[in-house]
Amino acid sequence: MSFNAAALGRLITGLRRALPEITGLQLTPTRQVVGKFYGSYIATAFQPWRRPTDRGVFAWEAYARSHSKSGADQSPGLLFADAVVDSDLVALDRLCRTVHALNYFARGESAQPLVLNVDTRLLHAVPEKHGEFFGKVLAMLDVAPQRIIIDINTTRVFDLSRLRQIIASYRRNGFAVAVSAESVIHARSVAHLLLPDLLVLDASGFNTDNLLQHAALLVRDGIRVGVKHIETSAHLDAALAAGVECVKGYLLDAPTSERRTIPSAQGSIECV
Q1: Domains (ranges, CATH) in the chain?
Q2: Higher-confidence residue: 219 or 106?
């Protein structure tokens, strides 16, 4: 699926009319979709998750990139931090996900799943029916929710019963769920209590031997494991030896706004 500028403009207009909760969608001359939130503009950058065995793309993860009207870069984290009212947080999250989905699925880059992060505070700001609204957005794009992986950082969520309910809601709405964990004990706990579709480990929190040991144990338990923040060849080698499903990090790729991946004998070439 790929839309030209006119068709993409009509799609954005249709989204505005059908889902008035989403405000601020705009189309740039380069066919990038951005979202306006108060005085900031939100764009998308993508970073691939790769299979460690052949470096092929497993999925693409979307990140918010924000800038002011003058063009000065802003921290997306601060943008979310400024949304102190629940209604603003929900509106910002919905805008970001819609911008990312449009920039991904409406522009031809849809062979692999799209990974979207959920702000931890949103899990509490939305009392129920997690994933229902975004499912309406995807329906308008004619995209099955099974092509989305919702990544939840569980390090700040202490009510596991509540978290199980939230994950069940996302799954009822057709989404796959990944959970991120940043310690060995935490990883094993959430792996067995939450049974995620993908458990994400942070390589920056492990030395090489520990990463190999604990990732391999999780894989042997039948858990699908991804490792993020791969910044050294030693961490990449450890992830490969452990048999993890996918890896991501600056050693392999930096986030970019637009690219096509061309396989090669050595891995891949990123065409920006």
Answers
A1: 5-256 (3.20.20.450)
A2: 219
